[in-house]
Design a protein that fits this description.
The chain is an alpha+beta fold and about 425 residues long. It folds into four domains: about 55 residues, no CATH class; about 90 residues, no CATH class; about 60 residues; about 140 residues, Histidine kinase-like ATPase, C-terminal domain (Heat Shock Protein 90, 2-Layer Sandwich). The chain is built from eleven helices and twelve strands. The strands form two sheets. Strands 6, 7, 8, 9, 10, 11 and 12 form a seven-stranded mixed sheet that branches. The chain is rod-shaped.
Amino acid sequence: MNRLRTKLTLLLVAALLLVSVVATTLSFLLLTPPRFDEIEDAVASQWALVADLVAHGNVPVPMSDRVIGVHAQPPSGEVLEAPTHGINAALATRGRPERIAVYKAPEASWPVLAGRLADGRWLWLPLAAPPEPRNQHWALFGWVLAMLIGTTLVMLIAVRRLTAPLALLERTVATIGPGGEISPLAENGPEEVRAAARAINLLASRLKQAMESRIRLVAAAGHDLRTPMTRMRLRAEFLPDEDRDIWIGDLDELNRIADSAIQLVREEVEGSTRSPIRLDTLVRDVTDELREVGLAIRLDSTVEVSIQARPLSLRRAIRNLTINAATHGGGAHIAVSSAEGEARVTISDRGPGIPEALMGQVFEPFFRVDPARGAEIPGAGLGLAIAREIAIGNGGRLILQNRPEGGLVQHLSFPAASPT
């Protein structure tokens, strides 16, 4: 009901129906209905005249192909009560003793006025007056229903054509990939649709150029930093020992930032083919690897589940998330589960968590929750950003939540695949 197409259709249909109903009502009010009382009086006068002529003259018996004249029997068929009552009332007003009936006779294609004469015979006359309208209310209802159906069909076609560019825009937005890519649209159909498709294709082209320019800039900056850092490292060898260690530490930090920036760009543009992998096996390998370097990591539970992903990048993402939990959260607890067609990796810790006010910024590059407190822990603030890019690039998602009892939970989920 909140869709623009639905609202516009209902508005136009209601407007046209209102105009039609008002016009029909005014027509009924302005048009003069037939005066049936005058018609009935005229018919009664004709009947009286013909009956008097028949009573005083020699009227021949009607031919076999004619129903008008003097007959021995009344007509067969249904008696029309309304005109019968009106004409008899007009005859009574004129002081005529006879009574007539209006028949819908099968012998004639029009109503027949018939009455018994004094000699016992029956006089048949055609009823020239129009019969009283029947089913007036049903006729009005049918008129309104036909207007409703016809107007609705016309408006549906018209509104669909008018809102075609908006529908095209909606479909295009729904197909935007995780990396912001938009598939080119076919520029065909009505002029409005072609114009909308051209605009969207132009927008997609410019957006792609802007993203590629940004990626090239970051990659070039990270790569070009290596040369001056190498020269600085060589010059640091000639410094006194107490100054050399500080310089080397700063250069190592710059090197980690450059490596992380290049790695983030690589994850954004990487287009390698996904392959089926066992998620539980990969998590177990990462856990064993990080335990060997002394990190406090515990694998609580696993289930056998497979996904379609790029193994090297996924391993890097799980490693980043696990190292974050182990270094910032005082230890990592990992679980692999599967439910509702999803494979999930849950990494929890018992650290300070992330303030809710900063939860929306944690995936920004180079963002650190507490720069002062985290200065002793090496890193460039790109671990979560890289992990999120890897998750999106493999068709999954990464969600962070604070635990009610304290600590942080990192949910990494992917569509489950058939095991290989």
